[in-house]
Amino acid sequence: MRLVRDVLGLFKLRIGFMIMLTALVGLVVTPGPALGLWKVLALALTVFLSSASAGAFNQYYEFDSDRLMARTRSRAFVTGALPHSPLWLALIALLLLGSVGTAAVCLNPVAAGFVFLGAFFYAVVYTVWLKRRSAWNIVIGGLAGSFAVLAGAAAVDPALGPLPWLLAAVLFLWTPPHFWSLAIANEAEYAAAGVPMLPVVVGVPRAATIVLWSTVALALTALLPVLFGAGLIYFLGAFCGGGYFVLKAWKLARAPSRQSAMASFFASLVQLSLLLGAATLDRLL
Predict the structure, then answer these.
(1) CA-closest candidate to residue 207, choices 226, 223, 185
(2) pLDDT-derived band at 78, boundaries 50, 70, 90
(3) How would you write the chain as a 3-class SS string?
(4) Is the distance from CB of 68 to CB of 188 less than 8 angstroms?
(5) Quick check: helix, strand or coil at residue 212?
(6) What's the alpha-carbon Rg for the chain, to the nearest Å?
(7) Which structural domains are found in the chain, ordered by start?
(8) pLDDT (tens digit, 9 = 90+) per residue, 87-97?
(9) Given its phi and psi angles, is residue 124 left (phi above 0), alpha (psi -120 to 50 degrees) or beta?
(10) Is the pLDDT reported for residue 170 higher than 90?
(11) Span 29-52, mean pLDDT?
């Protein structure tokens, strides 16, 4: 059982599940013919597995630096519970290629392209190229979630309309304040590991202010789909979720601390859950 938990933990399945949900929301909000159940399952599975491959690569690539942080030093590659073998890279590559190939065959090449880009941006652009080089690493890396929305939309209609693009923009703007809030809470660990997260580079007070203004930009952008066909249910979800996140981000900027940073982090999860749930109900009802 311990081995099973170690292997499952390697693939960051909770993140993969959230990414999968965003893809399904992208599918639901896109006007067009209803997809058959097997195509919906193909979308969910390919997005989930491609995200899992990216999560596993992240842990494989960062196992040296993971040992420097308390929240990551119990990961399987760090503890030696799983061997840090090149065979894992082969498995990860096969998982990604299988996911993208299945999406191309079962859905269409455009959806498959977005499935690939989501994994590529997290595994390569964020993990390899930017994480240890730039304080803005998570901004570009945040495109991984945006591509999941676009993959779901492209499964219905490869000629993407304004709603999927706007939801992708919302996901892009959501990731920085979400992750920066967590980075503020763990600023000392990132500094010790030599990772230039925003609070390490600009200081916690300034980073908290940036979180606030980026959250305001997110909340305002999340209301724009109302101008392109989203209804009252979506508006209420976007307004309430965005307002709650802004409130917690304002409290973080006013009095930065680990407690207020974690409150902002959890508020980001509430905001995203309300947004995705409201977008789905708005379309179905």
Answers:
(1) 185
(2) confident
(3) CHHHHHHHHHCCHHHHHHHHHHHHHHHHHCCCCCCCHHHHHHHHHHHHHHHHHHHHHHHHHCHHHHCCCCCCCCCHHHHCCCCCCHHHHHHHHHHHHHHHHHHHHHCCHHHHHHHHHHHHHHHHHHHHHHCCCCCCHHHHHCHHHHHHHHHHHHHHCCCCCHHHHHHHHHHHHHHHHHHHHHHHHCHHHHHHHCCCCHHHHHCHHHHHHHHHHHHHHHHHHHHHHHHHCCCHHHHHHHHHHHHHHHHHHHHHHHCCCHHHHHHHHHHHHHHHHHHHHHHHHHHHC
(4) no
(5) helix
(6) 19
(7) 1-160 (1.10.357.140), 162-285 (1.20.120)
(8) 999 999 999 99
(9) alpha
(10) yes
(11) 93
Distances in Å between the alpha carbon of 62 and those of 10, 123, 158, 243, 276? 12, 11, 35, 36, 31
For tokens 């992240």, the residue is: 58
Give the separation between CA 211 and CA 246, rounded to whole angstroms.
Answer: 9
3-state secondary structure 92-144: HHHHHHHHHHHHHHHCCHHHHHHHHHHHHHHHHHHHHHHCCCCCCHHHHHCHH
Which single residue is written with the structure tokens 């073998």?
A: 85
Q: Give CA–CA dist 161/149, Å, rounded.
A: 12
Write b or e for each residue in 27-44: b if 16 or more Cβ atoms lie within 10 A of its Cβ, otherwise e.
bbbbeeeebeeebbebbb
Read off φ and ψ for residue 237, nearest 5 degrees: -65, -45
